[in-house]
Design brief:
With 206 residues, this protein is of the alpha/beta class. It has helices spanning 24-33, 44-47, 60-69, 73-81, 91-96, 193-205; strands at residues 14-18, 37-41, 52-55, 86-89, 97-101, 113-118, 128-133, 143-148, 152-156, 161-165, 171-176, 179-182. Bound molecules: glutamine (GLN).
Length: 206
């Protein structure tokens, strides 16, 4: 802000968490613990104030319906198109995908990530599971990852970087420009590296 005595890089970035449905409280708590000014977002006026946005886990078909009902889908799409940093976990990753496989009838995503994502990719046999993932871009330590009725990324476009894969090679974390997505839930395990990385993206965009 012009004339402010606080250098911009030291001000807490305002980061929204889409709070229509799902585990938004966990993301808000984690982002606050990392020094962000984290806020629940339910209305377009609130979205307009943020420098970054997290779309939480939950149920993507419900989140889709509510975002259209609340008049947020359009503003969200324009914000993504204009370069707003957005991090989606699980259902949030589905919302960010350009193509959704096994969507329910009429389900739409916001798009932005040039990927095809399959919902509920692990089937009822393996609804939820935990595993350790190597994520070289976030350091040498593996990350303990919790998958809950999780999607996988089945196809990635040219500009998309796969950040993590399962032992069988399936992609479960991606990044493209200012957009970041994980099939799993770092907000549940206390590993802050994805959120820290995301806040760096938010801060570097200014
Ligand atoms: N299966 C959910 C969906 O399709 C995602 C689950 C989650 O976010 N934990 O949206």
């Amino acid at each position: 802000m012009a004339g402010s005595s606080v250098p911009i890089e030291q001000a807490a970035p305002i980061v929204g968490v889409l709070a229509l449905q799902g585990d938004f409280r966990e993301h808000i708590a984690l982002l606050k613990s990392l020094g962000a000014d984290a806020r629940a977002i339910r209305r377009p006026e609130e979205l307009a104030q943020v420098a970054g946005l997290v779309i939480p886990g939950g149920e993507s078909s419900v989140m889709d319906k509510l975002s259209r009902m609340f008049g947020l889908a359009g503003p969200l799409k324009s914000a993504i198109r204009s370069g707003l940093p957005v991090y989606g976990t699980c259902a949030g990753l589905i919302m960010l995908a350009d193509r959704v496989l096994d969507a329910i009838a009429g389900q739409e995503s916001l798009g932005g990530l040039d990927i095809s994502v399959r919902r509920n990719a692990f089937g009822s046999q393996r609804d939820s599971f935990e595993t350790d993932l190597a994520i070289p871009s976030l350091g040498a330590l593996p990350m303990h990852a919790v998958f809950i009725r999780a999607p996988v990324v089945e196809q990635v476009g040219e500009g998309v970087v796969a950040l993590a894969t399962l032992a069988d090679g399936r992609v479960v974390a991606v990044e493209q420009g200012n957009l970041l997505g994980t099939s799993f839930h770092p907000e549940m395990t206390g590993d802050t590296r994805f959120h820290e990385h995301f806040l760096n993206v938010v801060r570097s965009r200014g």
